[in-house]
Amino acid sequence: MENTDLALLIPIFGILTGMVIPVAVFIWLYYEGKGKRETILEISKQLDDPSKLQELLRIFDERRKEPIDYRRNGVITIFVGIGLYLLGYLALGSILKGVGALVGVIGIGTMIAGYLYPNTGKELTDAVEEFEKE
User: Fold this and answer.
1) What does the alpha-carbon distance between residue 50 and residue 111 come to, in Å, rounded to a whole number?
2) pLDDT in tens, 71-130
3) DSSP letter (8 states) at residue 68
4) CB 114 within 8 A of CB 74
5) How many CB atoms lie within 10 A of CB 43?
6) Cα 88–94–97 angle (5° rounding)?
7) pLDDT, averaged across the chain
């Protein structure tokens, strides 16, 4: 293979990677959820009371309804930004340093939003009680 042939293959592999990754994630999520669906089906066959089945389905849905913890996500984003900045500082140059700084600042903003907007039931109750005292 010549050098020009290899140079032509790089964009093709880049395009294929962009198509293969979403398809692979879709297949992975399908097979991950397949076991849960089969388990619910088997349990529902054994249950005589439909209210118990509704309760079981509610248990699976409760995990999705949990509020987003912006403080946790902010800390994670800050450290990703620091990592990118250090990678740019040590190896790849000023562009990656700028990207790392941007990601870090976004993380700081996300963490501040977590403190400004309480999201758990206890935090909301405490905020309301504190407001009512005033």
Assistant:
1) 43
2) 888 888 888 888 888 888 888 878 888 888 888 888 888 888 887 776 666 666 666 677
3) P
4) yes
5) 12
6) 50
7) 76
